[in-house]
Specification:
The protein is an all-alpha fold. The chain has helices spanning about 35-60, 70-95, 110-130, 145-160, 170-190, 215-235, 240-260, 265-280, 285-310, 320-325, 325-345, 350-355, 355-375, 390-395, 400-415, 420-425, 430-435, 450-485, 490-500, 515-525; strands spanning about 210, 215. It has one domain. Strands 1-2 form a two-stranded antiparallel sheet. Strand 1 and strand 2 form a beta hairpin.
């Protein structure tokens, strides 16, 4: 008896059917399970976004006992948030290790992260050499910029440099925090205190405390970052609603900038004004819109002047912004900016692109000429009358609210250090204890140089200062190059540059320096594959 056999039909689709008997549609890909590495990258991206949102929004606003422990509160918030983030990243890596048998991606450590690790290592050696080892770890008399904080800075920047970061939600969190801080700053300037921050302050202290940041110097340091990020958002906005929102945010932060009671905010703003075109020559639409952004700022200054003529100011005002709020000054500058905006629309993109090199060269020459002029005006041309500009140009012990006296004292302290400490630093508390031996002021102890770079020179030594400057330089270079293809990073790169300039007359402290360090880490983060420019 012949046995029947069924042969497979080569023309028949033998794809297994689904449970209901149907077959997958043609062209529908079968999803494969995610690898451990892919799952880790997703978890790391989620953790990074959550951390950045928490820090950008929460750090400027957090407080517990108003101004009376605001430094400690913000320091604790930053350290706890950063510590939790780093630990969760570590646990995620342990739970989701690299896939077995799969070739690992080549490990590359960004030069800025290497330089910041060197900064911490030098500071650690300086701490071992310190005459005040009890203050080295927390840095109580160094605005809490001790070894614990520097350790957190180094590993945080390293962790961020390894991530691909989606800045959409972190930027929104930053802008929301900036608007709240600015609104509170304006209210405090006019004596309106909805949260009761100033009710227990002495009358003599109320003029220099603003918003949820602290005194005028700290507020100015933060508002420089906020203004630059807001300007970057305004220049990048494309849809109608995004543009309306960007104008509103820029106007709110502009008012917050105008009430800053420290000229360091004006210095940072001037740095942003000079540097931002360099970031925009590759984007003609954004560069054309830049004068409109300055027009909005100057119009806000005009309105601020009108309000100040009606409402009584309570907090101190920067001399620069006091002059800017005069109707003649603000309206003229607004008119010039508006005319430039209209003129740029007639310039071809090719001409705009070709202007980058001449502008950079001109800016460099102007900075060099300005430095030479300052030297001459303080030496050979010292007797030349300059009118109101003398308070800014002629250096003396009273220059910059006694910063001239402070910087001279700091340089004397550094010159007297042993050679090893000149290299590695005298660590936290060095200035405070030097001032205790020979007080510079009768009513307050000196614990900072009011110049971040001179402060690092004393507390972290020449090697520490060079490491810090290398970190800053590599981060700015990366941010500038990245801005060509990723417009989201322009505001952050601008914020880092402006902060670095205002730091020449300001203080490293827990209110805003941690945000600056986070921005450094974001600037050197890994590029996403779709953001790499193609040739």
């Amino acid at each position: 008896m012949q046995q029947n056999t069924t042969l497979p039909n080569p023309n028949k689709d033998n794809t297994p059917s689904d449970e209901d008997g149907s077959r997958p549609r043609s062209g529908t890909p079968l999803t494969s399970p995610l690898s451990l590495q892919q799952r880790f990258l997703r978890a790391a991206a989620l953790l990074t976004t959550a951390y950045l949102c928490a820090v950008f929004l929460g750090h400027p606003l957090v407080f517990s006992n108003y101004y009376f422990n605001i430094t400690e509160t913000k320091q604790a918030f930053f350290l706890i948030a950063s510590g939790v983030y780093l630990l969760l990243l570590l646990f995620a890596r342990i739970a989701l290790p690299p896939d077995f048998g799969v070739a690992r991606e080549k490990f590359r450590l960004h030069p800025a992260a290497v330089a910041l690790f060197a900064f911490f290592a030098v500071s650690l050696v300086g701490g071992l050499l310190s005459r005040y080892p009890g203050e080295v770890f927390f840095g109580e008399n160094n605005r809490y910029q001790g070894l614990l904080t520097l350790f957190c800075y180094a590993f945080l920047v390293f962790a961020l440099s390894r991530r691909e970061i989606d800045l959409k939600w972190p930027e929104r969190a930053f802008l929301l925090g900036a608007c709240i801080v600015s609104l509170l700053g304006v209210l405090h300037h006019y004596g309106i205190d909805p949260l009761g921050f100033t009710q227990n302050l002495r009358a003599s202290d109320r003029g220099r405390f603003l918003s949820t940041i602290g005194n005028a110097d700290f507020y100015a340091s933060y508002i420089v970052l906020a203004f630059c990020v807001s300007l970057g958002f305004f220049l990048r906005a494309k849809t109608v609603w995004a543009r309306i929102l960007s104008v509103l945010v820029l106007a709110i932060v502009s008012f917050g900038t105008l009430v800053a009671g420290s000229d360091s905010a004006a210095l940072g703003l001037l740095a942003a004004f000079a540097f931002v075109p360099i970031l925009l020559f590759s984007d003609h639409a954004s560069l054309r819109r830049l004068p409109l952004g300055w027009t909005i700022f100057f119009l806000c200054a005009f309105v601020f002047g009108l309000l100040s003529s009606v409402w009584t100011s309570v907090t101190y005002l920067s001399a620069f912004f006091a002059a800017l709020r005069r109707p003649f000054v603000s309206l003229v500058l607004a008119g010039v900016s508006l005319a430039l905006w209209l003129t740029l629309w007639r310039v071809s993109p090719e001409r705009i692109s070709r202007a980058k090199r001449p502008y950079t060269v001109t800016l460099s020459c102007a900075l060099l000429a300005g430095a030479i002029a300052l030297v001459l005006l303080n030496t050979l041309l010292r007797e030349l009358p300059l009118g109101p500009l003398e308070r800014y140009v002629h250096f003396s012990e009273s220059w910059g609210t006694d910063r001239g006296k402070i910087w001279t004292f700091v340089l004397r302290v550094y010159a007297r250090l042993p050679f090893a400490q000149q290299l590695f630093g005298a660590s936290s508390g060095a200035l405070f204890h030097a001032d205790a031996v020979s007080p510079l002021f009768s009513d307050a102890g000196l614990d900072t140089a009011h110049n971040e770079y001179l402060q690092y020179l004393v507390t972290n030594g020449a090697l520490g200062l060079l490491s810090y400057l290398a970190t800053l330089g590599f981060a700015v270079w990366s941010g500038t190059r990245r801005s060509n293809s990723e417009p989201l990073y322009r505001g952050l790169a601008l914020a880092v540059v402006a902060y670095a300039v205002q730091a020449t007359v300001n203080i490293a402290q827990p209110m805003t320096t941690p945000l600056f360090i986070v921005l450094l880490g974001v600037l050197i983060s890994r590029r996403t594959k779709d953001s790499v420019p193609t040739i």
